[in-house]
Amino acid sequence: MKINKLIIFSFLVIFFYLFAPNKYVFAGVTPDWNISFSWDGTTVNNGGQYVFPLNTAGGGSYQWPGGNAYGEIYRGAPHNSVNIAGHYLGYGGSISGQNDFWPAYGHYFVVIHEVGPNTDISQIVNWFETGTGNSPEHWGIIEFDVVESIGVPLYTQVISDYPSEEETLKWTNEKYVDGQSECGYYIRQCGCAITSIVMVARYYDITEAQGQDVNPFEINNWLKNEPGGYINGNVNWIAGARYADWRIAYAKTDKNTDNYTLLDQYLNQNNPVIAKANAGRGGINRQHFFVIDNKLASTYGVKDPAWYNTKTLDETTDINNHIRGYENGFDGLRIYKKGNGIAQSAMTIVLGSPAELLITDPLGRKLGKDVNGIEYSEIPNAWYFEDGFDDPTGENPPAQERNKFIQILEPQDGEYKLEVIGTGEGDYSLDANFYDTQGNVNNKSFQSEIAVGYTANYNLSFNSSNSASNIVELIDEIPPEAKIYFNPSTQKLEVKGIDNTTVNPIVSVIEDGDKQTIYKIQDEAENITKFYFDEIKQKGKEIKAELKGIQYNNSEIISLPKTELKYEWSLNKDGAVKELNQRIKVEDLFDVKAKYNHKKNETEIKIKFLNKEEQRQIFPGIKIIKLITESGVLWFIF
Predict the structure, then answer these.
(1) Residue 301 and residue 310: Cα distance in Å, rounded?
(2) Strand locations in 199-286 (E)
(3) How far apart are CA 201 and CA 110, in angstroms?
(4) CB 399 within 8 A of CB 415
(5) What are φ and ψ of residue 96, in 5° steps?
(6) Assuming Cys at both sites, which of 16, 280, 306, 526 could form a disulfide with 392, CB separation 3.0 to 4.6 Å?
């Protein structure tokens, strides 16, 4: 099966020494020229604009009996046609060298006729188009069909005739993944990637996979149950190859815009590719995946799972007719090639978060983006990119978050270091999927929080022959610390965790007795810090507490100098704090007092260090003094 094929000429048009004497008779006129036309075998692409050899550039040559000649290309049938191109051909078989095109599939004919110095060409064109006007005195005709070659079959995520309305109704309204993807609930809204995979698979004659017909309904069901098949609503492209039993193999990800060189490389090898369009192309604010399957004279052939009447990459958007314009370009490629049924070893890591990924392989090569925003691409057959797509129906707005992907084909066995580097504040999900040469997959998932300045470090162990032995673990040997303060909203003593990698470590009270209260703070790496208080006493609008010791993981308890925390307050009628007195005193270190005055709406803070004069500062509004810990040392902030 090939993408670039010779035009299939029906009727009288065959490749070599084409055209026997023509017996056309219409409107009482019979051609009297027999045109000898030869074809040199030059490949002519179908699907868009095509060169017809009225000229040497097209690889053909003509001969006619004599006289000055004019050549014209028409689409349709004689007397019911549209003139596509026409020009003077010269005398006695010479070629003018002009380029001639016809723009789409259909029925065509070419006329070569004699012209004199006073010939009205428009009258002759009218005669061939409508039957009115004047026929040429001497002429010959070639008639043929241009039909679409067998290539990538068109399947759609929406209701259409591709492959049929009956078939598309089976999947367009089926739930996509878990029905909670940002793009929407249904395949018709989110199925552009899986439908594109279906088209590519069927091009390679893969019509059955996992015991079922290859279509969007079946691949969706399979990926939902496959470890790492869908990740945050995105298709795992490696899982697509596993779905097809490795009869297609994942070849490459490219995130460059309009990389025609790479596109041509694969099309010339008869490999269709999946292309990505960013929001804005053709005036449509939707990211989307579609298939490019053919290189044409000045553009490319397209199979679009949503805008299914889009035939070429250079069309103009016409939403009512299901056409999206791609401005003759694209914003990245996802490439499969024909597989041999042998499983690929691979690694796919997906991050959903305001963060970046950076991975370092056993040889020290890096892929991803570091804390300074520098991007690395040192690992061979590996790519760091962003994926996402939107609802083409317009029922849901474009997604706000995109997932970051690391893909490595045939990774080096050994130990890897992975960093999740915060670029914003929020939750993050991390999914690592390992494929071995036996066709097995192992999935590891993590959920946490991230913020600017935080980096979560993971160790990965990869074994290409046994995915079950692959390990992902968060590396963090630093236990969390605490921030202790009065919370005006709850009017209670607050203990909040602080950690180098976990944004909000878990805080719990593991003992609350008459003589002792113990808080435990645990980070994601399961490091634990315990804070030992004398009984925390709260009576009415007064709190007194004393912090006695800190224990990091299983080390000995660190005894602290006498540390007192005292808070007194009054409330307005609306329950808001009216006045607040705070005091944090660490013996032989510091004594901090703060007093908030509602009338003045200001806080006066007095700080006394050991053997130093007292300092006094005034701040607008309420200032809360916070006792903080660091490796057993106490300090304060406000």
Answers:
(1) 9
(2) 208-209, 212-213, 230-231, 234-235, 248-254, 273-277
(3) 39
(4) no
(5) -80, -20
(6) 306
- β-strands 375-377, 366-369 pairing: antiparallel
Q: Which two tokens stand for residue 564?
A: 């007192």
Tell me how far apart the alpha carbons of residues 635 and 531 are, in angstroms, rounded to a whole number. 15
Q: How far, rounded to the nearest angstrom, does the alpha carbon of residue 395 sit from its chain's CA centroid?
A: 20
21 confidence band (pLDDT: 50, 70, 90) = very low
Helices and strands (DSSP H and E) totals, the chain? 7, 42
Could you tell me the pTM of the whole model? Answer: 0.68
pLDDT of residue 477: 85
CA angle 335, 149, 157 (to 5 degrees): 55
The tens digit of pLDDT for each residue in 516-532 reads 999 999 998 899 999 99
pLDDT in tens, 35-82: 655 443 333 444 334 445 554 333 344 556 666 788 888 888 889 898
Q: Where are the beta strands (DSSP E) in 489-609?
A: 492-498, 506-512, 516-522, 528-534, 537-538, 542-552, 558-571, 577-586, 590-597, 602-609
Closest CA to 425 of 482, 484, 355: 355
Write out pLDDT tens, residues 308-330: 999 999 999 999 999 999 999 99
Task: For residue 30, report the phi and psi dihedrals to the nearest 5 degrees.
Answer: -120, 135
End-to-end CA distance of the chain: 72
